[in-house]
Amino acid sequence: MTTSRPLRPMPEVELVRDGLWSIPVPIPQNSLAYVLVYAFELDDGIAIVDAGWDTDEAWTALVGGLETIGASVSDVRSNLITHIHPDHFGLAGRVRDACGGWIGMHEADAALIGDRYANVDELLSRSKRWLADAGVPGEFEWDLRSASLKIREMVSAVQPDRLIADGERVDVPGWDLRAVWTPGHSPGHLCFVAPEARLLLTGDHVLPHITPNVSVHPQSEHNPLGDYLNSLRKLAAFDPDEVLPAHESRFTDLHRRLRELVSHHLDRLEAVQAGIEEGRTTAWELAEVFPWSRPWADIEPFMRRAAVGELLAHVRLLEEIGLVEALAGPPTIFRLKARSPGPEIAARLGVDGLYDPPDVAARRTS
Ligand SMILES: [Zn+2]
Ligand SMILES: [Zn+2]
Fold first, then answer.
1. Closest CA to 270 of 322, 203, 220, 344
2. Domain annotation covers residue 88
3. Domain tally for the chain?
4. What is the pLDDT of residues 89-147, one digit of tens each?
5. How does residue 5 score in pLDDT terms, banded at 50, 70 and 90?
6. Is-contact 88 35, C-beta < 8 A?
7. Residue 137 forms part of a structural domain
8. What backbone torsions phi and psi does residue 45 show, to the nearest 5 degrees?
9. What are the DSSP calls for 229-253, one per residue?
10. Does the bond joining 330 to the residue before it have cis omega, within 30 degrees of 0?
11. pLDDT mean across residues, the chain
12. Is the dihedral of CA 52, 57, 60, 61 positive or negative?
């Protein structure tokens, strides 16, 4: 992820609407600082969206937050998971053990649980091939490959009790809550829309300042950026009064943020084409063409791997629309077949209605 401004300190437990609360749960040693768990009051308990990392500190914050709103963890009837990442899903098993409620998530993320968090040897050897294909130099290979092993300890690899499908009215009695499948940041990412309350819960799909990581990696090999842009377009159909993201803070202007995110990726698609034209041919060489928040040499292994994955997501999209070809490696070598400016690509992808080319964006913010 890239940050455009410093993160605010840990917020308080806050009342969002009558019967709906926001509970911050800390994420250890991570610049995101906290995940916001949303708690819906029910006649007979509480439904929560996301849970937090599987650490004692997170557990204490979640239990304490529920006490602040007059509930206990044993009151949790359901835990809706926006996506598989450890800061959202990690603590779900411990919550279920304490309350007996159900865990719900989309099947595309549920399908990844065993592979990602339990049988990691296979995934590590696929990661090795993936890094070689990306052109990662040998001296960085192990650091990048093993970077997520520590994180894996923050997750209990439990299976969900229910699968939640796109468009489904979710079983949260007393609330009109519908699932919106928004693949991209993860294959099974879900947002939740509450039309009566005029609220949209966006998980990590749309955050107010941070650009969510969208990566090609060994568990997401198709065209995640194509999916992500489509999922941004899908949200353009909604007009909530307030957006409830899983990090940072709530905000109001959904459509403005959708435009910023679409434009950010279209600018990067142009940068990748320019990078290939300048003679950078592997994912590793190309990863430096993006402006990261720190110099490339100062970025730690886990974030570099995410950066290479994000670069690959852009290249893969260009491949899908016929602008780039990939010559099998390792390492895979990319060649530019044709160059296309942002507005043309946006029109092809059907997101031109959400795209501000750089000159327009500059006028809008000045
Ligand atoms: Zn995430
Ligand atoms: Zn997250």
1. 344
2. yes
3. 1
4. 999 999 999 999 999 999 999 998 876 665 667 777 777 888 888 888 877 776 767 76
5. very low
6. yes
7. no
8. 155, -145
9. HHHHHHHTT---SEEEESSS--BS-
10. yes
11. 90
12. negative
State the ligand closest to the CA atom of 188. 1
CA distance 268 to 315: 10
> What is the span of the domain harbouring residue 98?
14-116+156-250
Question: How confident is the model over 145-193, as pLDDT tens digits?
Answer: 776 665 555 556 799 999 999 999 999 999 999 999 999 999 999 999 9
Element (H, E) at 40: strand 34-42
* Nearest listed ligand to the Cα of residue 212: 1
Q: Which of 224, 327, 332 is nearest to 286 (CA)?
A: 332
The CA radius of gyration of the chain, in Å to the nearest whole number, is 20
**CA–CA distance, 102 with 68 (Å, rounded to integer):** 23
35 CA distance to ligand 1 centroid (A)? 10
C-alpha closest to that of 35 among 195, 202, 176: 202
Q: Measure the CA–CA gap between 150 and 73, rounded to whole angstroms.
A: 27
Residue 316 is assigned to a structural domain of this protein: no
**Residue whose C-alpha is closest to residue 103's, from 48, 151, 143, 61:** 48
Tokens of 324: 């780039």
**Calpha distance 76→203 (Å, rounded):** 19
- Give me ligand 2 centre to Cα 276, in Å: 31
Contact 240, 199 (CB under 8 A): yes
Q: Which ligand is nearest to the CA of 213?
A: 1
Residue 122: C-alpha distances to residues 4, 128, 129, 155 (Å)? 36, 10, 11, 18
What percentage of the chain reaches a pLDDT higher than 90?
Answer: 70
Q: How far apart are the first and last CA of the chain?
A: 25
Hey, which residues does 242 pair with through a beta bridge?
A: 199
* Rounded CA separation 34/109 (Å): 22
Share of the chain above pLDDT 70, in %: 90
Distance 85 CA to ligand 1 centre (A): 5
Residue of 167, 245, 166 lying closest to 201 (CA atoms):
245
Q: At 25, which CATH number?
A: 3.60.15.10
**Domain annotation covers residue 195:** yes
